[in-house]
Amino acid sequence: MEEREGEVRWDGLCSRDAATRAAALDNIGQAVLRRSETIAPVAAVPPTRAADGLLVPAARDGLSEVLARLLMLSKRCPFPDVREKSEAILSGVQELGIRIPRPLGHGPSRFIPEKETIQVGNEDAMMHTLFADSFATLGRLDNVTLVMVFHPQYLESFLKTQHYLLQMDGPLPLHYRHYIGIMAAARHQCSYLVNLHVNDFLHVGGDPKWLNGLENAPQKLQNLGELNKMLAHRPWLITKEHIEQLLKTEENSWSLAELIHAVVLLTHYHSLASFTFGCGISPEIDCEGGHTFRPPSVSNYCICDITNGYHGVDEIHASPTGSIPSTESVCEVEALMEKMKQLQECRDEEEASQEEMATRFEREKRESMFVCSSEDEESAPTRDVSRHFEDTSYGYKDFSRHGMHVPTFRAQDYSWEDHGYSLVNRLYPDVGQLLDEKFHIAYNLTYNTMAMHKDVDTSMLRRAIWNYIHCMFGIRYDDYDYGEINQLLDRSFKVYIKTVVCTPEKTTKRMYDSFWRQFEHSEKVHVNLLLVEARMQAELLYALRAITRYMT
């Protein structure tokens, strides 16, 4: 960023030392003032009218990007001194007659009303530490973090893992890591993540030419394209031959350690794309679609907002979740709790035979193929990011479509705990441990609540969600009765799960609103954490099993 914004340097703002931040803010203020004064005379002449009758904003010398970043800092920085000074700098620019940006949309999520999310500046001490750590590491407090912080224990583990993958010592150079993140996010057309990593890629010295398309990146990264698309959409097709191709391509070959690093990054960003769409994450304030230089219209709602994905206050806040409980939705919670109780009693009384358990798994796997949403619904508008990957027609396909049969992956034969964990830890030290901790936190996380009920054991429900996702990927646990899934997960919930996990770019607010209507938003975010980790583990199991087979 620094290079493109001339003398404006942002690094000092990430310091935990107030004096260092103050000095950086003074420098930024002076640099912005100098640029603004060169433009101010232009802005001061009789107003030039654009076709829509609005003042044309000044956008010379990269000032727009600088002002957008200051807007982001004024709203999203965990340090109050930075928020206040950024706001003061923007006010000074406005006083010179230059239009300043304003945020579009309401808060970090299009699905969750802003008043129900944590407001920066109102967080408790534990959350403030997490926010400060995230800001110091990334130079921003992103919207993913502001939604994940509903669950601080998980967020801490997530940030630690992501920091290790992107910034700590490891087999791959820094710019490769961000480029792989771009490749992975682009498979799901996740322009939110692509935007963030394009900026990070350039910041660590990545070649801008690579951003014109995968064919402009080194052959070594191009060779990763096939594995990327299979992991994202059909991981059950990965074989040891695919691994061998990557490891034995002479001068463009990958080492085993590099490949493990790449596989973990790909699965991390595929699943993070699921979270981004599943929770309706809004564009960052300083990114495309997150701000506008247009003044608010009289009704506070103008056509430019629609094109940026903001559809007005009514649409964003008209969510059944958190509204006055309807009799129907209260009954939905009571019915689910009653089913959990009955299933527990059945478990205690009798256990199905192994044959019956296997039959129930195959039935659930087969039925999961017919769970699909109506695809004519409008999902969030996304910028075309297809240039970052090849074969845009390649997407999710169910197992047995067109007569193809994929053998069931028995978790007893190859599991994360017994096989994957040790392989990752051996080739990329400490990462196996970090991933293991993150999987366990997501799987075991509970506050013993269900909507308005307290002291509830939710383990049966959490296990059903996790195992349903693995079932969609063909992964079977011999000791689980798959008959429980149909009892606990209704159709609208299954549609949401399958969409977020398999085709996240098709997720809509209507899908989010239609499942668990009386549950808290924090509980729906918790569901998304289960989806993220179960999906990531499923992809990893297929890739790691293929690597193990190659090695033996």
UniProtKB/TrEMBL annotation:
SUPFAM superfamilies tied to this protein: AhpD-like
Alphabetical UniProt keywords: Cytoplasm, Oxidoreductase
One GO BP: cellular response to L-leucine
GO CC annotation terms, alphabetical: cytoplasm; nucleus
GO MF term set: L-leucine binding; oxidoreductase activity, acting on peroxide as acceptor
DNA damage recorded as keyword: no
InterPro entries: AhpD-like (IPR029032), Sestrin (IPR006730)
Alphabetical list of Pfam families matching this protein: PA26 (PF04636)
Name of the featured protein: SESN1 protein
Organism whose genome encodes this protein: Grus americana (Whooping crane)
Lineage, broadest ranks: Eukaryota, Metazoa, Chordata, Craniata, Vertebrata
